[in-house]
Amino acid sequence: MSKNYVIGFPRIGEQRELKRVLEKYWAKEVAFSEVECVALELKERHWEYQSDAGIDCISCNDFSLYDNMLDTSVMLGAIPARFKGLKNEELYFGMARGDSERVAMEMTKWFNTNYHYIVPELSLEDSYLLDASKIVKEYKEAKAFGIKPKINIIGPLTYLGLSKRVDGGDSYALYGKIMPLYVELLETISRLDETLLVQIDEPIFVKDLDTKLLSLIKPTYDTLANVAQNIEIVVSSYFEHAKEATAILVHTPIFAIGLDFLYGEENLDSLEILAQSGKTVVAGVVDGRNIWKNNFDTTLALLEKIALKIPVERLYVSSSCSLLHTPFSLKYEEKMDAQLKNWLSYAVEKLDEISLISQLFFEGEKSLNSFELELLHANRDANISRKTAARIHNKSVQARVSALDTFERKGSFDARIKIQRELLAYEDLATTSIGSFPQTAQIRKARADYKTGAMTKEAYEQEMRNYIDACVAFQEECGLEVLVHGEPERNDMVEYFGEQLSGYGFSQNGWVQSYGSRCVKPPFIYGDISRPKSMTVEWISYAQSKTEKIMKGMLTGPVTILNWSFVRDDMPRSEVSKQIAVALSDEVDDLQNAGIKMIQVDEAAFKEGYPLRKTKIARYENWAVRDFKISVSSAKKETQIHTHMCYSEFNDIIKTIEAMGADVISIETARSGNELLKIFKKVGYKQEVGPGVYDIHSPRVPSVQEMVHQIELLLEVLPKEQLWINPDCGLKTRKWEEVKPSLKNMVEAVKIVREKLK
Ligand code: GLN
Ligand code: ZN
Q1: CB of 646 closer than 6 A to ligand 1?
Q2: Which domains does the chain have, with CATH numbers?
């Protein structure tokens, strides 16, 4: 009897082997055959890990050289016109990355994760054609390796729901073209073996579904489940509950439904109808999105609850989602503090957890052998240690955070801005930048050498000061009005703060795929957050001492710090965020006491933390706004608070943005003229706004004329008194040769516009 199940496994490799070989191939250092060779090695190793751990349902086709949505587009022949004529790997990587003649396909976040998929481009005019070769190949590889895998595919409704129509209109209009290919796919699959298990991922089911999508669920799964007698279909969703879709799926002839009982606790409400329907339930109970050791007692209790309704013969113990969203294996964490390491569990370790929990649940503790018993006891001990460790708890932080009930800044915005404009005396259309300047090879090396001890503190600090000097000199020379120090000391806008806050841990090899060959290594929050000493004051004060102009201090906001970290699971996220906010409010106070007059608190990840379900949004907005406000609550009326957000679509959240109460917000609008700014006018937004006037994501240097035009477009929407002029985002990924002329042109453009306005 099969008992346990893993939705999917990371593919980048425990030493990021896939990343390495892809980048070599792209640099033309190795042939494509080398990529294929590494890929097969990885697939086999990952199957081996899973089968060694005793996982019953192991996937194939969860592997990808770049992205599974892209694989699905290739499988369906959904090739945008500009790539026609390319073949095989040139086509595949061309779609993913573009080339000198063709822009890459768009990439966007996979639900509320930090994984990015390639957005399919569909059109009613195009014709589509099935190519199931990747799936067939992976199935055969797995069989040859000695396992009988389930086959993972992205479902038609999710595929269409995440696509965009290049000819405008609703992607579901292509249902009639795409659906027959899925039927053909299942026919092809059915010939691969006597019996087959196919996992069809439909994570779109966890969103609020419109009537159109709801109406497609039954016909889709009636059809797919009837294609072949020898295929059993599991429809799986994750990251939230899927109650509406479940209520429909139970009336289709599919075999099982996979549900996330951790991030979608409400799925428990579906147990009754699942029980009546006789469906098997793949119960997602081991967290696929976090790094903490599972608490077996809690998980067993959850399974018992599920088993009150669903007979155990119809239950699988599963990961809550693909383990793609966790790092690979703890075995390379050689430097991590032993106690912290003992609290963690990455993908490979989660396999053992899933296996052990299923054995405990189905067969009881008596069935464990001595090795398994040892694992069980170690797990219990680790959980106890994590609960009771002194380093987790900071009484004074807890007391301060819970006592905090007022977090309003002094003075209304109207009163503040009047004082600020008098005191700070900046002109209308004031020019500034978002914070970072190019991260040169030299400063990266200095940071790395300082970390390893190859460079002394003195030499390192001198290096940073030299860079700041150069940034200040350049900004003065080019005539910018509000300066920044350039952020040379920051490797990353979250890690830099994490490293200086107590309660944060860091990994050596905790890489998680973000897109293609790119991985991120989020720090993790394990305990109460406090700030032993100021984090930015020295650098910012140094920069201010080098200029008569205003030097803007630079911080990362609480919500962004939270959203880009792995967060402790023994406390609500909102509480953790509040602790970070309190620490930041002390930093704001230190900065203003050191004479810094403007402070920018970046909230680049504010929007990506939004819940998937509308009913949960108000709660999130509530605490997210609260915590931004707490972090700047120490600012005096005279201190001007800026914030920056890396996107442009504010229509749904404009009231929330306004409620944050930043005196100035800079946003990303350069690619959309003034369209996206209109919402600010529409709602009568009062605070000042810096809509990016050029796109920093491209190496192109924008001309003066172009930016004059862009500024004039902005002036059609908002008055000059309300506008700031700045690039779209930080400049760290650009080169100085691009940044210097771009900013000079920007300042020049403002001069021309000011002249015209006179
Ligand atoms: N201040 C940061 C920078 O300029 C902001 C980065 C971001 O918004 N992603 O780099
Ligand atoms: Zn940005």
Answers
A1: yes
A2: 4-388 (3.20.20.210), 411-757 (3.20.20.210)
